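Prompt: For my understanding, could you write out one protein's sequence and backbone structure tokens?
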Amino acid sequence: MRFTKTATGTILDATTGLEWAAESAGPMNWQAAMDHCHKLGDGWRAPTIQELQWVVDYDRHNPACDPIFKMQSNRHWSSSAYQSAPGYAWLVIFFDGDTLAYIKTSYYYVRAVRAGSRSLGDSTFDNSDTLTPGKLAAALEAAAAVLRGRDGL
């Protein structure tokens, strides 16, 4: 099983080693979302767009993720800024798993995450990185390769 719930309610991802907060918070604007995650302390932060997409399960819909998350089908902020427009950041719509950049003053949800034991390869970002279309494509390709290996495709 890829995702397991801990005794404290957090969710562990066996594939990435990431630990996800038990619940989403919000709605709130992007800066409030970043602040909220940071204030949780103990290594909690907002996820990068790659980390957030790691949760998406395209075989599911409304929400497009494992039911263990009890995720809102709404939009969830990532920490990844949009390179071409600094006032925008990447997010995932958990209704269907779509990814898009949206203005940071909009109010959406956030799910905190903390460091895992495994990275997503060279495309892993920290909160200071800017996501470019090339980096997004590389991260998606890395995720697809892992999923192909998992499913024997």
